[in-house]
Each structure stands twice: as C-alpha cells, then as structure tokens.
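# step 3/5: fold
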Amino acid sequence: MTHPYAALTPDCVLDVLDSVGFRTSGSQFPLNSYENRVYQVGVDDEAPVIAKFYRPGRWSDAQILEEHTFAAELVEREIPVVAPLQIAGRTLFEHQGFRFAVFPRRGGRAPELDNPDTLEWLGRFLGRIHAVGAIRPFAERPALTQQTFGSGPRDLLLAGNFIPDDLLPAYRSVVDQALQGVAYCYERAGTVAAIRLHGDVHGGNVLWTPDGPHFVDLDDARMGPAVQDLWMLLSGEREERVRQLADVLAGYEDFCEFDPRELHLIEALRTLRLIHYAGWLAQRWEDPAFPHAFPWFNTQRYWQDHILALREQVAAMDEPPLWPV
C-alpha cells in the first residue's frame, strides 16, 4: 500500500503554503520529525516559515485545535512557546488531503542540561506552563496512563510479528513484571493531579537563545502528572539526578507548587516511555520513513537490549524515589 505521505511532494509542500497566502521562494528542506512531516519553507522577502503536516489519522481536528489553543494561552502569558500562526483567524488548514499548520521559524541550540542555571531557568518556565495547564483540562486529548503508554503498546507488540520467537517468553515475562512495578509506583504515589502537559520535554524540544529557552512541538501535549515534563531533563548517576532535580524544582516552585508524591512516578514513567516507544515504532512500521530511520528495530539485538532495559527498570522501580536536597 502507498503511504499517505508519499503524496507530499516538494511541489505539494509549496502549493499548500501558497494556498494560505505565502509567496514561497521555492526553497525548502525537511526538519527532523517522524510522527509528522515538518519543512522549513522559504518565503519571498520574508523570513522562512515552518510548515507542519499532521499525520493522517493520528489526531482529530478537535485534538489538534486543543494543542493550538493551549499554545496560544501560553504565548498570551508571555511564556516562550512557539505557537502556530493565525491566518484569517485560523490555525489549522487542509489542502490536497493534508491537515497542516504554519509556525514562525525560531532559532536556537540545545540547552546545556549539565548547567545548574540552565536547569533552574527551564524549571521556572515549566512551572509557568504548568500553572496555566492546571487551569482547566483537555477535553479531547488522551491522558498519559498505564494503559495508553503501557498495556496498550504491550498488547500491540505481542499481537504483531515484531518480537523474535525465541525472545517472546522473556519479553512477556519482563514486560508484565515492569507493568506490575509501574502499578506499584502509582500506588505509592497515591492520587496525584493530572494537568495539561507539554508531554515531551527533552533537549531536542527546547531551543536555547541568549534570552533563554523556547519550547517547541506540543504535538504530544496531553493530560498527566507534572513530573512527566521534568524527569527527562535528568541524567547520569543517582547523585547527579538528585542535584539536577533540585535545580529544576528551585525554579519550578517559584511559579507552581510541586507535589513530592509524584517523585514515586519518575522510574514508572521512564518504564512506560520505553514500552510506548517500542509500540510506537511497531505502529508506524508501515511508514517507509521508519524502516529507513530505525533499521535496528525488529532485530534480535534490539529486542535483547529492550528486554535488558526493562529488567533494569524493574530494579530501578524498587529503589527509593529521588529526593532533592
């Protein structure tokens, strides 16, 4: 079967931008994105713009517009999030079968996550984002749950022909142990608030400038615990992560109260991300861009490493949570 993105030719990209009033110069190049297709497109006598083509069938129009509305709320409060441009009062468009949005181009580099001042700065803006995110919930977007990021992807992987037969028993055993560990972490945390999140705060989704960070790509925005937007900023040995967490929270709590019970969820969320990521690759494997970009998926070595990573997470979830000092 021909994938829908096969019709997204260079001429189509330019036609789409022309359809909403941009006089394109003809220059374009793809940016690093696999879930959607994203291009920087030149515009005559103006700065280039970024055109984002939403993956067909992933989000409904209402879910995409919730993302746009959330971004606009943040920009209105002078929080540095890159929001889609409003053109004739709209942010979401359709042309030649593709839904798309247009964003201003923002430059920047990856943040220095080993710098305490950088982490505190990021924490301040994440606190501001979450203060807005807690005002009201998403009505259309799904939540980050043990089912959507855990048992759902697991079931998809087991139903497909992705895991080598000789590794299936080991995968079944360890993924079930991992999900039991996740459930135990959630039990220890108790009832924690679910708020609107950025959803995917890692170094690639933060552009650093002399004026500070710009947060990009709200495509994974959803309801979930606040710590989901914090834990991916942490790396290294336990002592390093404790220090980094303290730096992030020093800025975060200037604007938003953090519930320390959510620290029980850090390793659980890391585990869910591992399971979800494997399921995401399997779900998108029919897209020709995925075998090309991820040739190691579906190999014996990948699944051996994945099983080992889940075993390490089972152990990590038994450890005491990180407590900033």
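# step 4/5: annotate
The first strand starts at residue 24 and ends at 30.
# step 5/5: archive (pending)
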